[in-house]
Amino acid sequence: MERNDFSQWYIDQNGPDQLHCFGIKRVLVDYQSSVQRIQIIEIESLGKCLLIDGRIQSAEKDEFIYHEALVHPPLLLHPHPRKVLVLGVGEGATIRELLKYDHLKITGVDIDSEMIDFSRKYLQAWHQGALNHPHFQLVLQDGWDFMEQTEELFDIIILDLPEPYPDTPAYRLYTAEFYRMAAEKLTAEGILVTQGETTRPGQEDHHFFIKNNLSAVFRHTFSYQTYIPSFDSSWGFLMAVKNHLDPFLPAENIDRLIKERIKGQLRFYDGQTHLSMFYLPRHLRPDSQGSGGTGPG
């Protein structure tokens, strides 16, 4: 293995006793908005990386894994999605994936206008023009306030939010109170999906905290996971519905839906991948979770 000497290192504290380090080739952008600190650094193994308040949110070489896993399961499991709400527009890659479907009306809500301007300027590789698409409507507003005030109903609600650290604006968007508001904004067959934190053994409480809050509101919740290299962790996602949903469709059914509904290329997600995400190891399945977690510290 060739050794490189780096003058700067990105250090991500992934737990009380864990530091994960990446050598920084270059710091490309370092900007403080009115809401958060936004940086782009370049790492040899991950390419350009977007950091928000010092935490990796997305990496050039593997962001497709996270965004395809977040978007396509709910969009294909819903019988006829038309109206989609995204809370947390960020780099625009979630919108990019949604635009692979025809006839969607997409509303994106973000609290930080400077983040959107930053993405338009620096993150073209992520959004690929999606932020300027005519089928996408941007609303610059706090997600809680939007959910409280909107009278629209949505077929899909996607919560692509930062991790729920206490004393951050995102934290209350993971509470049962917020999920009750979101449930009222879903159509009868609507699906809510959220990023679901790490499922790393020993830290599952972060995932169960979100799942328990969703389960207090929704009739059915479903965990799924995949490995995200830039997070150096298996990463959870959660879907929630008010009525029945069966995510365990045969792989060939998912592949057929992909062919029928999606235009453009998928690099990660297909029928086999879908099932691999939903078939969980025993310690993450409902009968082994106990009471779940109390949330991140």
From TrEMBL:
What EC designation does it have? 2.5.1.16
Name the SUPFAM superfamilies on file: S-adenosyl-L-methionine-dependent methyltransferases (SSF53335)
Reaction(s) this enzyme catalyzes, per UniProt: S-adenosyl 3-(methylsulfanyl)propylamine + putrescine = S-methyl-5'-thioadenosine + spermidine + H(+); S-adenosyl 3-(methylsulfanyl)propylamine + spermidine = thermospermine + S-methyl-5'-thioadenosine + H(+)
CDD domains in the record, alphabetically?
AdoMet_MTases
Would the keyword Transferase be found if you checked this record's keyword annotation? yes
Q: Where does S-methyl-5'-thioadenosine bind?
A: Q36, D110, D142, G143, P169
Among the Pfam families in the record, one is Spermine_synt_N
Q: Which residues bind spermidine?
A: H67, E91
Q: Which residues form the active site?
A: D160 (proton acceptor)
Listed under GO biological process in this entry are: spermidine biosynthetic process
| Location of the PABS domain | 7-242
In alphabetical order, the GO MF annotations are: spermidine synthase activity; thermospermine synthase activity
Q: Which UniProt keywords are given for this protein, alphabetically ordered? A: Polyamine biosynthesis, Spermidine biosynthesis, Transferase
The protein's enzyme class = transferase
The pathway where this protein functions is:
Amine and polyamine biosynthesis; spermidine biosynthesis; spermidine from putrescine: step 1/1
Does Transferase appear among the keywords?
yes
Q: How does it assemble?
A: Homodimer or homotetramer.
Q: Which family does it belong to?
A: Belongs to the spermidine/spermine synthase family.
Q: What does this protein do?
A: Catalyzes the irreversible transfer of a propylamine group from the amino donor S-adenosylmethioninamine (decarboxy-AdoMet) to putrescine (1,4-diaminobutane) to yield spermidine.
Record-given protein name: Polyamine aminopropyltransferase
